[in-house]
């Protein structure tokens, strides 16, 4: 276990030793602060409580998704791009452990960004809007945590997709570009297919990543879809993505490409 922890620590060092990581963190912080300033001094958003502001900052989670895709799409492929994969594989750790350490590092990066956004949104809201008045139950702190948790599911699934493409094709640009394209276009594609009465669309990944209708009330994209169904579909996709990543990373010859 200690050797695996060292692998994770090594991957974390790789992530945070690059300037782009700190730029990403700075952008997350500045995005939240800028949103608070705009809502308070530029547009009248009718916000009078920090919890109201925090509930709105969940809409900024797409920024975290994009940044996570960049890390996940690069974390495996960059080893091949820079030729460091052979140095990595001469370690006594198995390929499976190395891949798992990389994936765990991606998840830790996601948690760091989400926690940063949550904390900064609280203090930004506290300073700019204060805590006067009463908020509705759907904007209470437990509801906000649920909303962040649901966004976390979407981020993790998109990052796992990018991770798989990175391991499968060993191309950072392909993994990042394709994942971001799917993230931005998938909802529109799903809505078009739903309008065309294509019921099989319910088996698509991005038709199931938004779990908010099951938690906060509302209708799923197709009748008959349930929380259990969507969680099952997401679990199947997760197993597929990580399984393909593991198979190609552990079995494919490094020199052969």
TrEMBL record:
Pfam families the record matches: ABC2_membrane_4 (PF12730)
Keyword Protein biosynthesis: no
Keywords carried by this UniProt record: Membrane, Transmembrane, Transmembrane helix
Residue intervals passing through the bilayer: 21-43, 63-82, 103-128, 148-169, 176-196, 227-249
Superkingdom field: Bacteria
Record has Transmembrane as a keyword: yes
Descriptive protein name: ABC transporter permease
Organism: Paenibacillus allorhizosphaerae
Upper lineage: Bacteria, Bacillati, Bacillota, Bacilli, Bacillales
């Amino acid at each position: 276990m200690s050797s695996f922890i060292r692998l994770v620590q090594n991957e974390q060092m790789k992530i945070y030793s690059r300037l782009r990581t700190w730029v990403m963190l700075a952008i997350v912080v500045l995005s939240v602060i800028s949103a608070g300033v705009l809502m308070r001094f530029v547009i009248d958003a009718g916000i009078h409580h920090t919890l109201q502001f925090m509930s709105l900052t969940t809409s900024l989670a797409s920024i975290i998704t994009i940044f996570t895709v960049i890390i996940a799409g690069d974390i495996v492929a960059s080893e091949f791009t820079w030729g460091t994969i052979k140095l990595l594989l001469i370690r006594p750790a198995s390929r499976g452990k190395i891949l798992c350490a990389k994936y765990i590092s991606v998840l830790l990066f996601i948690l760091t960004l989400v926690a940063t956004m949550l904390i900064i949104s609280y203090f930004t809201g506290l300073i700019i809007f204060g805590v006067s008045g009463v908020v509705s139950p759907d904007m209470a702190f437990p509801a906000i945590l649920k909303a962040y948790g649901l966004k976390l599911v979407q981020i993790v699934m998109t990052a796992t997709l990018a991770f798989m493409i990175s391991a499968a094709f060993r191309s950072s640009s392909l993994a990042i570009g394709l994942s971001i394209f799917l993230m931005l276009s998938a909802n529109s594609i799903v809505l078009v297919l739903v309008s065309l009465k294509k019921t099989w669309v319910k088996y698509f990944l991005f038709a199931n990543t938004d779990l908010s209708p099951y938690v906060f009330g509302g209708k799923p994209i197709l009748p008959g879809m349930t929380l259990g169904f969507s969680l099952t579909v997401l679990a199947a996709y997760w197993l597929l993505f990580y399984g393909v990543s593991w198979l190609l990373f552990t079995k494919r010859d490094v020199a052969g490409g």
